[in-house]
Write a structure and sequence with these properties.
The protein has about 325 residues and is of the alpha/beta class. Helix content is about 30%, strand content about 15%. The chain has nine helices and nine strands. The chain has helices spanning about 65-70, 95-115, 130-140, 160-165, 170-175, 200-205, 205-215, 235-245, 270-295, and strands spanning about 1-5, 15-20, 25-30, 40-45, 75-80, 120-125, 145-150, 220-225, 255-260. A nine-stranded mixed sheet has the order 1-2-3-5-4-6-7-8-9, with helices on both faces. Strand 6, helix 3 and strand 7 (about 145-150) form a beta-alpha-beta unit. The radius of gyration is 18 Å and the shape is globular. The termini are far apart.
Length: about 325
């Protein structure tokens, strides 16, 4: 069942809805191309302590992934992950990553029954949502490609310190220099932020081991972006090499760095640049799919790209 529900302030053309998936009722934001015929559908997955509104920032018109994606012919569905938004009352402690994979997979099934999805699903995800996207790709092989920002392999902090750091505001790690954000950013945050559910927080320190287990099962093209002022994750040359050495089955792998950005890229001045690059990556994958369909029986795989290991300012 799908219904509309008033939500936080939103951009023109963005509407709220709810989706029932795997027994969980999720709140979402949706933007569709004007002709209702999407090239593909982008499912946008927010990070810990944020909500779906992260992808429809209200501090400046250039921030919204939802409106930009719809103008470029994509349907964009930004969902509140289990334990956030509408489902916070139902799941006050949240869910584990594995449980969220089941819900996200069911969301994609249910949405496709009521909406045109074009060529299929791309996942665009941030921070903790990036973990969910990678695990979903490893377990379901559903997404056509992934674009992940603010998520890596090893933390730039000792794992034992993570519970203490997460219990504080971690302002500098989340945002970086204030000049990276439009002036109204921090006045408009009330509708975007939410407490990180306890079951989610309890898993944070386990991520490097989880990534070790699942990375070689990710068989979709992957693009990963680290902000210039990323402070949660290690992202130097050696760290990029470690990630590359694990994502061995991704037919295309790009690891890039976004100048003039902090961890919350999609809320800063760099948002439009990052979103255009992500959607451009998805356009490339659509072109590759069309090429493969014109060559029935071909077993060629796309040649992996050489990741960029240049860290601005380092």
């Amino acid at each position: 069942m799908e219904t509309s529900k008033p939500s936080q302030p939103r951009s023109a053309g963005v509407r709220p809805l709810t989706l029932d998936a795997a027994g969980v009722t999720l709140s979402c934001l949706l933007a569709e191309p004007p002709d209702g015929q999407p090239r593909a559908t982008v499912v946008a997955v927010h990070g810990g302590g944020m909500t779906a509104g992260y992808y429809d920032g209200q501090a400046h018109p250039d921030l919204s992934l939802l409106t930009l994606g719809a103008r470029l012919g994509f349907t964009v569905l930004a969902l509140d992950r289990p334990g956030y938004g509408r489902s916070a009352e139902q799941l006050p402690a949240g869910q584990t990553l594995a449980e969220q994979v089941e819900v996200l997979d069911a969301v994609m099934d249910g949405f496709a029954q009521r909406h045109a999805t074009g060529a299929g699903y791309f996942l665009l995800a941030h921070s903790y949502g990036g973990k969910l996207a990678l695990l979903t790709a490893a377990q379901t092989h559903r997404p056509l490609a992934l674009d992940v920002s603010g998520c890596g392999y090893r933390y730039d902090i000792e794992p034992a310190e993570l519970p203490r750091v997460l219990s504080r505001s971690s302002w500098g790690r989340n945002w970086g220099p204030l000049r990276l954000y439009p002036p109204d950013t921090f006045r408009s945050l009330g509708a975007l932020v939410a407490p990180m559910p306890v079951r989610e927080a309890d898993e944070v320190a386990r991520w490097p081991g989880i990534f070790d287990d699942i990375a070689a099962r990710v068989r979709a093209p992957v693009r990963m972006t680290f902000a210039e002022h990323e402070a949660w994750w290690l992202h130097g040359e050696r760290d990029v090499a470690e990630i590359t050495a694990r994502l061995t089955e991704a037919p295309v792998l790009r690891i890039e760095h976004q100048p003039d950005a902090g961890h919350n890229i999609s809320l800063g001045w760099a948002a439009r640049s990052y979103h255009l690059r992500a959607l451009g990556f998805f356009e490339e994958r659509l072109a590759a799919l069309r090429g493969q369909r014109r060559r029935p029986g071909s077993t060629d795989r796309p040649v992996p790209t050489v990741p960029s290991a240049t860290v601005p300012g380092v």
